[in-house]
Amino acid sequence: MAETKAGPTVSDLFRRAQAIRQENPQTSYRDIAKQIAREFSGGPFPPTYNLTIPEQDARAPEEDWSAGLPLVLRGIQQQDWNDIAQGIILSLEQTENYERERGGEGTRDAWHDRSAGIEGATDKGVSKWMPEELVKLAEKKSPNREQ
What we know:
Layout: H1 10-23, H2 29-40, H3 62-65, H4 69-78, H5 81-102, H6 119-129, H7 132-141
Helix pairs in contact: 1-2, 1-5, 2-5, 4-5
């Protein structure tokens, strides 16, 4: 069996796009897409089994950060880095637009609080299986959790 080199994950590509954007916020989305395609062309393609950007769930609703994933999948299937980069950029743009319109995490009003209605059920479920000392440790380490 031949040894294969693992490619970057979709999350890795998204984090790279974010890093480029943070280094130079005036960089256009088109230029970021070109840079992503240029940097990763010739390398292995991302796996399709984890086609997600989980850390973005706290920044924007899933329908925003996942907007470009169909393009990413098509790019992987057709082995086209330009399509992959366009999908990553669409997800980045949607996430940034949501934050610009709604504010960053922790600054939203009660209407947009994504934990509303599930916090009690989550606490009840966690308390059933998580030892008390781990709950206390998690609450201590979590900056967003109200005591």
